[in-house]
């Protein structure tokens, strides 16, 4: 703790409100990180294109058609893999509406993240311990925490706009590095 930030934990929970657009954006960022074309696939495509170019140079007349077909095939594969698959995933995501999160407050404590939610006349309180979080991602726009409590999985998408004196991302990162390890790459 520094002189500027005397108490690194939450005294007053902060509002945790995430729009559908923020949820969709986080889902797409995570999906894009898993939809990478492998090095092996790039090498195979490179070899096919190289052989096709050599075939175009060395072969004459109608024999070069299969070389052009191979180049077009590689181009189609890349177009479908990069643009077509993303279009399909966006379409499927829109079939399942995301619910906007409102009325929830989060706080950072030495034992984990504390959630408060008004339920009728009572206030419900829940806690996600640092040991319950099994992986986390740190991006320029948000922090994603995946956790498992009592056999059920869940996730928190923490937009960087939430980083404040009452909800310190610095403290969250410190605890996550100690209990979970380094953030996974996206």
UniProtKB/TrEMBL annotation:
Sorted UniProt keywords: Membrane, Transmembrane, Transmembrane helix
Transmembrane feature ranges: 41-59, 65-84
Protein name: YcxB family protein
Keyword Transmembrane assigned: yes
């Amino acid at each position: 703790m520094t002189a500027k930030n005397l108490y690194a934990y939450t005294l007053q929970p902060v509002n945790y409100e995430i729009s559908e657009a923020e949820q969709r954006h986080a889902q797409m960022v995570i999906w894009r990180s898993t939809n990478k074309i492998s090095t092996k696939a790039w090498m195979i495509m490179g070899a096919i294109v190289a052989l096709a170019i050599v075939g175009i140079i060395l072969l004459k007349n109608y024999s070069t058609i299969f070389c052009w077909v191979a180049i077009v095939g590689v181009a189609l594969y890349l177009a479908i893999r990069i643009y077509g698959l993303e279009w399909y995933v966006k379409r499927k995501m829109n079939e399942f509406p995301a619910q906007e999160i409102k009325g929830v407050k989060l706080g950072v404590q030495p034992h984990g993240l504390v959630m408060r939610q008004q339920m009728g006349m009572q206030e419900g309180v829940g806690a996600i311990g640092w040991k319950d979080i099994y992986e986390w991602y740190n991006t320029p726009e948000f922090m994603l925490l995946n956790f498992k409590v009592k056999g059920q999985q869940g996730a928190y998408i923490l937009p960087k706009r939430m980083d404040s004196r009452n909800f310190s991302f610095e403290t969250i990162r410190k605890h996550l590095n100690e209990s979970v390890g380094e953030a996974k790459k996206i």
